[in-house]
Amino acid sequence: MENKLEVLSSIKVEYTDQLYKLVDLLNRTLKKEGYTFGLALDKEDEQKAVFTIYRI
């Protein structure tokens, strides 16, 4: 069975060391509803992070 994620939205934001807490909370709360969230440093500017919402 192939697990494919559909990207619903993505945004670039200022990076802070607390962002992962928000992503963790959203993942724990909304995974049952079919959503998951990702956070990655921007490859071009490490002062920014890319926050992405996926549908499972």
Layout of helices and strands:
Layout: E1 6-14, H1 19-30, E2 35-41, E3 48-55
Antiparallel strand pairs: 1-3, 2-3
* Spatial strand arrangement across the major sheet: 1-3-2
Q: How many strands, what sense, and barrel or not for the largest sheet?
A: 3 strands, antiparallel
Number of helices: 1
| Tally of DSSP β-strands | 3
C-alpha end-to-end distance: 13 Å
| N-to-C SSE string, H for helix and E for strand | EHEE
Overall, the morphology is globular
Give the oligomeric state of the chains in this entry, treating copies of one chain as homo and distinct chains as hetero: single chain
User: What's the mean pLDDT score?
Assistant: 94
Strand content: 35-45%
Low-confidence stretches: none
InterPro entries: UCP036698
Protein name: YpmA family protein
Polypeptide structure, described:
- It holds the Pfam family DUF4264.
- InterPro entries: UCP036698.
- It comes from Fervidibacillus albus.
- The chain is of the alpha+beta class.
- 21% of the residues lie in helices and 43% in strands.
- It contains one helix and three strands.
- The chain has a three-stranded antiparallel β-sheet with strand order 1-3-2, with helices on one face.
- The longest helix is centred in the middle third of the chain and has 12 residues, at 19-30.
- The mean pLDDT is 94.
Q: Nutshell version of this structure?
A:
InterPro entries: UCP036698. This protein has one helix at 19-30; strands at 6-14, 35-41, 48-55. The chain is an alpha+beta fold and 56 residues long.
